[in-house]
Amino acid sequence: MGVIFLQGMHFYAHHGCFEEEQCIGTWFDVDVRLEVDTAQAQLTDDLSSTVSYLDVFQIVKQQMNCPSHLLEHVARRIADCILSSFTMVEQCHVTLRKLNPPLGGHLDAAGVEVSVKR
After folding, report:
1. Which of 1, 25, 65, 112 has a C-alpha 20 to 30 A away from that of 96?
2. Could you give the strand order of the β-sheet that contains 2-13, starting from the edge strand earlier in sequence?
3. Which residues are designated catalytic?
4. CB 34 within 8 A of CB 117
5. Mind listing the pLDDT tens digit for each residue in 96-114?
6. What CATH class does 2-117 carry?
7. What's the CA gap between 41 and 48, in Å, rounded?
8. Sign of the CA dihedral 10, 12, 14, 17?
C-alpha cells in the first residue's frame, strides 16, 4: 500500500452559509491523501498503474467550483468523486480549510477533515 497526496491546493470559491460568502467568496486550501496499492507502479514506472495527481487536482478544482453551504458537503463530494473515478483508491482523506473566515475576529482558518473508505 502507498500514499499519494496533494497538499496546499489553493482555490478562490463561494462556499458558506452567509450571503456575503456566497456572493463575494474567499480563499480555501485543500489537501487530499489517497491510500492506493502502488506496488505495480513501483515496479513498472507506468502511470497507468497508479493514480495521476493531475487528474485528482482536476477533480478537486471542479468540485471547488460548485458552491455549497457546508464545507463537509464539499469535502465529501471531492472524496466521493475521487473514489468513483479511481478504483485503485482504497481510502480518501480530504482536508478543506476556509482561510480568514468571517467570524468577527482574527482566525487563520476553519475547516473539516473527511475520510471515506471504499
Report:
1. 1
2. 2-13, 26-36, 89-99, 109-117
3. 98
4. no
5. 999 988 778 888 999 999 9
6. alpha beta
7. 8
8. positive
Pick out the chain residues at pLDDT < 50: none
The residue whose grid cell reads 471504499 is: 118
Q: Is the dihedral of CA 54, 117, 75, 8 positive or negative?
A: negative
Instruction: Classify the C-alpha dihedral 47-48-50-52 as positive or negative.
Output: positive
Residue 29, helix vs strand vs coil: strand
What residue spans define the domains of the chain? 2-117
CA distances from residue 103 to 15, 22, 36 in whole angstroms, order as listed: 15, 15, 38
**Do strands 26-36 and 89-99 pair parallel, antiparallel, or not at all (unpaired)?**
antiparallel
Reported residue count of the chain is 118
